[in-house]
Design goal:
mainly beta; 9% helix; 12 strands; binds thymidine-5'-diphosphate; Jelly Rolls; 5-stranded antiparallel β-sheet
Length: 141
């Protein structure tokens, strides 16, 4: 499982005292890249599936800073894993060239996404068959 073996849950330092809690995510320290972009997804219904793409250049860390969701990750070779994002101080690291589906959003879900790359629509692979082709070509190299 070349691609999926790099997909990992990450637990972030949680600083808590009587004033509340604070979670820290530093690039190249708590996650394996410098952060060039962040975006967040909220207001998605429970039956919505987002993502449904792979990336040639972007790596991601996904954190449900509020609420919960799930992420299904596929390597294009028949292997898949599901990750539950159900605490604000855990995330999942996704390397390049893995297919991801985000779903099962709670009504209060705010899914924060950090990336090593600025947005470039041309590095997104949005066709699953094309993704499988690219992965098997890479494997053959
Ligand atoms: P999309 O990739 O469909 O979101 P997701 O995969 O997370 O469900 O993006 C939705 C829209 O937002 C689309 O028009 C492209 C735009 N967008 C940006 O402009 N910059 C970004 O960094 C991202 C992730 C999306």
């Amino acid at each position: 499982m070349i691609g999926l073996s790099q997909v990992q849950m990450v637990e972030f330092p949680l600083h808590g005292d009587e004033r509340g809690r604070l979670v820290v995510v530093e690039g190249m320290k708590d996650i394996p890249f410098d952060i060039k972009r962040l975006f967040y997804i909220y207001g998605s219904d429970k039956d919505v599936v987002r993502g449904t793409h792979a990336n040639r250049k972007s790596e991601f860390v996904l954190i449900n800073v509020a609420g919960t969701s799930k992420v299904k990750v596929k390597d294009g070779l028949g292997n898949e894993k599901v990750f539950d994002l159900d605490r604000p101080n855990i995330g999942v690291y996704l390397p390049t060239l893995v297919w991801k589906d985000m779903y099962d959003f709670s009504a209060d879900s705010v899914l924060l996404v950090l990336s090593n790359e600025p947005y470039d629509a041309t590095e997104y692979i949005r066709d699953y068959d094309e993704f499988c082709r690219i992965v098997s070509e890479q494997k053959g190299e």
